[in-house]
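Ticket #4471: structure export looks truncated?
Reporter: QA, pipeline team
Priority: medium

Steps to reproduce: submit the single chain below to the structure queue and open the exported record.
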Amino acid sequence: MPGWGNAMELRQPIVSVMGHVDHGKTSLLDRIAESTKAPHEAGGITQHIGAIEVPLRRIEKLCHGLIRPLQFSVPGLLFIDTPGHKAFVSMRRRGGSLADLAVVVVAMNEGFMPQTREVLQILRHEKTPFIVAVNKIDLLQGYRPLPPWTPIHKGLATLPPDAQKHLDERLYLIAEELYAAGFSAERYDRVSDYARNVAMVPLSAKTGEGIPDLLALLIGLSQKFLETDLKKQGVAGEATILEGTEVRGMGSVANVVLYQGRMHVGDPIVVNGSDGPFLSRIRAMHRRAGGRSDKLQAVEEATAAAGLVISASELERALPGGLIKVVAPGVAVEKALEDLAIETHPTRSVMENGVWLKADTVGSLDALLFECQESNIPVKGLEVGAVTKREVTIMGAVKDPARRAVLAFSVPVTPEAEETAAKLEVAVHSDEVIYRLLEKYQKWEEETRREVEAGRRKETPHPAKLRLLPGYVFRTAKPAIVGVKVLAGTIHPPCRLVSSTGEEVGTLKGFQESNRPVADATEGAEVSAAIDGAIVGRSIYEGDVLYVYLTESNVRDFKDLPLAPAERDTLEELVKIQRARTKNRFWGL
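Actual output as written to the record:
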């Protein structure tokens, strides 16, 4: 591994493990937590609620031959023990995501899956550096297990040539997916510039091979690229709320990750609540006793970064993904509450004709808002919590039918909301994957716009023209019945017709095809037409081109509406005709 040098005192980086379901996230964390645990050794692996802490001295032992003792000043790694991308977007801190680094787990035998692609979108949004852990190399044909915790660069060289070739092919496919998402990637031992390339580490969470390489890479990249972010700063503690829960004998508690500063029992704190920030005071703090034990160990103070259980009054109101901040001496409580409200509220430009967003946490809401902005979906309002009658009623008044929707990410929909949505024709789309949620909405939006356009075309004349077919005059008047061919657009009777000079010639009452009435006729159709008020041989003639009559107001409306190219050309022809007829060169502007 490259030498990264020493640095001043740093806090340990926070690492989030992400990836598709069943690709090995939990197995990897279990392997790190349990297989690296040193029984009876002070400072061994300690798993706190929501976090697995791996001190540097344990990493040095596990990564023997990969890193040297005293090479790093990063004190260790704090893995967030909450699976999946939802946890990542849910966990926030002031200025961005909670994680300093991420590990994206991809199963070698399956490659990228939908959830993996969403993970990459989130990482790009957050600008979070990451490593790809290519898991399940033990499934390679010809694979021979090595001693546990063997560095993978040694193990790969012992594989049969066919197995090495197969692995390279799989890595190439994963690199292709990363490239499509905007990232350049290479196997970690072939990377020349870690600032420009994503490292892929082949490993097996089952056997432990490759995990030393992953740990060494994480600790090295942390010190090389995150030194400024990891410098210990500030005394007043700041923590992210992972979740709220009840503990017997303690009441309501919050599982948190302390990412900056210090916290002490007795500190006044401001907390993000479901109904806004509130003031409280730390009554007690705990860590897990070690390993997978459920026993809690009381502590009087803690320093970032650490996983903690905090007991304080009114924590049942705590908002998952929100923040807890110690009120520093000399800071007014009102100012602390105001600052917290501003820091944790997603910024947005409210659009009158936009959708409404609902999500389970502040972080999820922020991620959903970002993806809507990326997809040019306007947002009218957003908030954390279940979909209720209130926001559905608000959306019922939105003018644009294709924006009359609520996008619900990982939250329930109340029965009252469902009933109100049905009455007010508001669509409620729900999903636990952001990109699928947006796909649902976009598909519905497209269908809704098609339906609206079809209805509008029936109610409002659109640019269209037809030609009277020579030799197909069935009646000359009252009404004239003639054979016609539609040259452009779609014509919905009844509608008025004008000649190529702009003079009104009559009203198209209806169409027939094979002696049967038809509701409309589109470009290329040949049908018989009944034209009331027209007389063949006097006001209309065989071979004439007639246009659907449009008012000047209609023409102005079509400037901002979608039209087919043939419709747009027909509109321009009609405008020229009317300007010549009225001698008004500004007609239609």
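Status: closed, not a bug. The export was complete when the record was re-opened. Leaving a note from the reviewer for reference: The longest helix spans residues 434-459.
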